[in-house]
Specification:
The chain is α/β, with parallel strands linked by helices. The protein has 2 domains: 60-75 and 110-460 and 795-802, Glycogen Phosphorylase B (Rossmann fold, 3-Layer(aba) Sandwich), CATH 3.40.50.2000; 464-690 and 756-788, Rossmann fold (3-Layer(aba) Sandwich), CATH 3.40.50. The protein has 35 helices and 25 strands. Helix 1 (6-21) packs across helix 4 (87-96), helix 9 crosses helix 11 (324-335) and helix 23 (552-568) packs across helix 32 (750-769). The longest helix has 30 residues, at 30-59. The radius of gyration is 27 Å and the shape is globular. The two termini are 16 Å apart. 49% of the residues are buried. Residues 807-811 have low confidence and may be disordered. Bound molecules: ligand 26Q. Ligand 26Q binds at residues 115-118, 121, 267, 269-270, 273-274, 279, 356-357, 362, 364, 431, 460, 648-652, 670.
Length: 811
């Protein structure tokens, strides 16, 4: 472990500051001071990083590579210091120098290279792999522009380009000597040499892939793993000067631009799949570069090519990196000379796949003609994989042509990526129990019957180091004071906290901590949005991507109904509440953008109505991102997890809220079910349609939103309020929402669940008034949250899928 005393730290820090900035500390801006601290932290990490790599090479342990299009890392400084075990020393040392550590941490740009749940999961997994001493590394794309910055202008979302690299990035080290070449387009020739078929790729467009490495520090264990992100650059010798003289200057510029586009932007859509060629390029680009560099590494270390599957596990985060399957086949066959069967054995033993969605519109499929043109050799390999699959299916399902064509990787003119991922891997996992069951029994059922042993569940988790220890230091201190600190290394030890569920003094301390967090958030809201909120009101929080299935609309309609009730009866006896929303809509998702407008209109109306604004307030917080979530979640009383049952694969913010002592109001969807199973029915507020009911409606019909409306006057009124000018002088403004509910018969059962949701909110109200009961529930939730640490999830992946991490198991 890193041993640095306060005085040593101060000396190192001052030296680093001067070295970096060439001025005295007293002259520096906060940003300069942040840079110096981050730079020094990196210096501390580098030696450990080298020795970790040396250890991995010496022991020859199996290495895990987590391939993901997204890593939503947020800020690095605070968590790196925490994991190094020197955050307290730094805090004190800086304080001696008149510097506030948290203020410097706030200077760091969020690393926003992800859309939401899937990208943040990848980031939590990196933290857990390093902390469990598992040799697990990330492989992804170094997007120059992360997820767009959201501005709310006149109540509507406006997207602004994000620029996280504008001041450089202290955490990364560029490794030009480890660059790889990735080939696009061109033609493939087949030749026969010594009885073997040789595939020669001509006329391709080469792209240089440059890796940037970032250290991922484990918690107090001397392990530093690597996140390697690839950046696309033109090959400099492609600028041959003869083409300039031939007046092909513009071609050279075109080449440069088309190459740089590959790692320019993150696609900001997480549900509606779009068959854009640039996205396909991005996928092949990082998968090919990553695999080439991994294989080069093992060959340099003397690993025999036939033993690769004992030395590496490659995990693909959704289908986005599924080209790893044909690309690994290509490298093993065309570059390493293996035959099909050996290459296939190594590939399927190596690759494992996580599915994150059952939304049909999110499943990736690529038009064959586009695919073939961009990746001719990869397409040939997929054709062969598919031939062999269909051969197997013909033998097994004689004459069942429908089934065979349904299961084919190539059909209807498309390459179906989920089918490729299932066929080419040895493990397919869902991200919560219900989700895995739906995969097996509904969505992927044909494949489940073909390969029953591949399918398994790995319920998601979150790193308690960021989401509890870092985000909520006071709650951390209370836990340590009451139950000790064993839970930091063994999160399920948090169960010991349940002993205090009925302890009035601990309840009081928990309440005080929550209130402090709420005051801090209130001040932040005042500073950033100019809105006064009451820290003694219940903070009722709904933060996540804006999507019809996540049902921000349901939440909003109930606020509108409450408003109507308050106007009718100003003496209504309810708990004062602050409704907090945050989240980004995909730029092309018209309905989601309309939902943001509705929330802001409702906020505007309510916050400016003196009849109600001392009882309820609505706040839409701009630009949701990891660092904002870290501020909001510790201050939440009520966690809104109200997706249409069956639609949310898992959810992970539900776990973050629970760990911070919020009470959950939820449908029986995704991991909410497992949270309920952990805490018991009396410690969570459940409402809404069950899985069966939803599936029945989808399969057999019989749902009519308008017929429900006619029997519920309150609901009828709020739906009318969408269109009667109550929330906008433009009566058509919320027509998209109105039509989705009425004209299009409410695909996500907002109308159906409304009544049960209102009643559930009534129960929340009653519970909140009962100080003892509410705090008992909060304590019980915290105590049972340890199982949702991503440490548990990662241990399950390591033992159940990757066959890695024996060092940890032997500890
Ligand atoms: C695909 C093709 C083209 C463009 C974009 C995409 C794309 C990008 C991101 C598709 C999906 C995503 C992200 C999906 C996601 O975040 N899913 C969430 O994953 C979480 C972690 O498992 C779950 O908890 C959530 O339930 C799930 O919605």
């Amino acid at each position: 472990m890193l041993k640095i005393g306060k005085e040593q730290f101060k000396k190192d820090y001052i030296e680093k500051f001067i070295e970096m900035h060439g001025t005295e500390l007293s002259e520096g801006t906060d940003y300069n001071k942040y840079e110096a601290l981050a730079g020094l932290t990196r210096d501390y990490v580098v030696k450990m990083w080298l020795s970790t790599n040396k250890r991995y090479n010496d022991t020859g342990e199996k290495q895990v590579y987590y391939f993901s299009m997204e890593f939503l890392m947020g800020r690095m400084l605070g968590n790196t210091l925490l994991n190094l075990g020197i955050r307290d020393v730094c805090k004190e040392g800086l304080s001696d120098l008149g510097i506030d550590l948290e203020r410097l941490e706030e200077m760091e740009e969020d690393q926003g290279l992800g859309n939401g749940g899937l990208g943040r999961l990848a980031a939590c997994f990196l933290d857990s792999m390093a902390s469990l001493n598992i040799p697990g590394h990330g492989c992804g794309i170094r997007y120059k522009r992360g997820f767009f910055e959201q501005k709310i202008i006149d109540g509507s979302q406006v997207e602004a380009p994000e620029n996280w690299l504008k001041n450089g990035n202290v955490w990364e080290i560029k490794k030009p000597d480890k660059a790889q070449i990735v080939k696009f387009g061109g033609h493939v020739r087949v030749e026969r040499r010594d009885g073997h078929l040789i595939f020669i790729h001509d006329d391709y467009e080469p792209v240089l892939a440059i890796p940037y490495d970032m250290p991922i520090v484990g918690y107090e264990n001397d392990t530093v793993n690597t996140l390697r992100l690839w950046s696309a650059e033109p090959l400099s010798d492609e600028f041959d000067f003869s083409s300039f003289s031939r007046g092909e200057y513009s071609k050279a510029i075109e080449y440069k631009n088309s190459v740089e586009a590959i790692s320019q932007i993150l696609y900001p859509d997480d549900t509606l799949y779009e068959g854009k060629i640039l996205r396909l390029k991005q996928q092949y680009f990082f998968v090919s570069a990553g695999l080439q560099s991994i294989i080069r590494h093992f060959k340099n270390n003397g690993v025999g090519i036939r033993d690769l599957d004992e030395k590496m596990a490659i995990h693909i985060n959704d289908t986005h990196p599924a080209l790893a399957i044909p690309e690994l086949m290509r490298i093993l066959m065309d570059e390493e000379g293996l035959g099909w069967d050996d290459a296939w054995r190594i590939t399927t033993n190596t690759i494992s796949y996580t599915n994150h969605t059952i939304l049909a519109e999110a499943l990736e499929k690529w038009p064959i003609d586009m695919f073939k043109r961009l990746l001719p050799r990869i397409y040939m390999i997929i054709e062969e994989i598919n031939e062999r699959l269909c051969g197997q299916l013909w033998n097994r399902y004689i004459g069942q042509w429908d089934k065979i064509s349904r299961m084919s990787i190539l059909s209807d003119g498309y390459v179906k990526m989920a089918h490729l991922a299932i066929v080419g891997s040895h493990s397919v996992n869902g991200v919560a129990k219900l989700h895995t069951e739906i995969l097996k029994k509904e969505e992927m059922t044909d494949f489940y019957y073909l390969y029953p042993r591949k399918f398994n569940n790995k319920t998601n988790g979150i790193t308690h180091r960021r989401w509890l220890i870092k985000a909520n230091p006071q709650l951390t201190a209370l836990l340590i004071d009451t139950i000790g600190d064993s839970w930091i290394k063994h999160p399920t030890d948090m169960e010991k906290f349940e002993r205090f569920a009925h302890d009035r003094s601990v309840q009081g301390r928990l309440y005080d901590i929550k209130r402090d967090n709420k005051v801090r958030l209130s001040n932040f809201i005042k500073r950033t949005q100019g809105i006064d909120v009451d820290p003694d009101s219940m903070f009722d929080v709904h933060i996540k991507r804006i999507h019809a299935y996540k049902r921000q609309t349901l939440n909003c309609l109930r606020i509108m109904a409450l408003y109507n009730r308050l106007i009718e009866n100003p003496n209504l006896d309810i708990v004062p509440r602050t409704f907090i929303f945050a989240g980004k809509a995909a730029p092309g998702y018209y309905l989601a953008k309309n939902i943001i407008e509705l929330i802001n209109s409702v906020a505007n109306r309510i916050n400016n109505d003196p009849r109600v604004n001392n009882i309820i307030k609505v706040v839409f917080m701009e630009n949701y991102r990891v660092s904002l979530a870290e501020k909001i979640i510790p201050a939440a009383d009520l966690s809104e997890q109200i997706s249409t049952t069956t639609k949310e694969a898992s959810g992970t913010s539900n776990m973050k809220f629970m760990m911070n002592g919020a009470v959950t109001i939820a449908t029986l969807d995704g991991a909410n079910i497992e949270i309920r199973d952990e805490v018991g029915d009396e410690n969570i507020i459940i409402f809404g349609l069950t899985e069966r009911e939803v599936l029945n409606y989808y399969q057999t019909g019989g749902y009519s939103s308008t017929s429900i409306l006619s029997s519920n006057a309150i609901l009828k009124q709020v739906v009318e309020d969408l269109m009667n000018g109550q929330y906008s002088s433009d009566k058509d403004k919320f027509k998209p929402i109105y039509e989705s509910l009425i004209t299009y018969n409410d695909e996500f059962f907002v109308i159906k669940d409304f009544d049960s949701y209102i009643k559930a909110q009534g129960r929340a109200d009653i519970l909140y008034r009962d100080f003892t009961e509410w705090n008992k529930i909060a304590i019980t939730n915290i105590a049972h949250s340890g199982i949702f640490s991503s440490d548990r999830t990662i241990q399950e992946y390591a033992t159940g899928i990757w066959g890695s991490g024996y060092l940890y198991k032997n500890l």
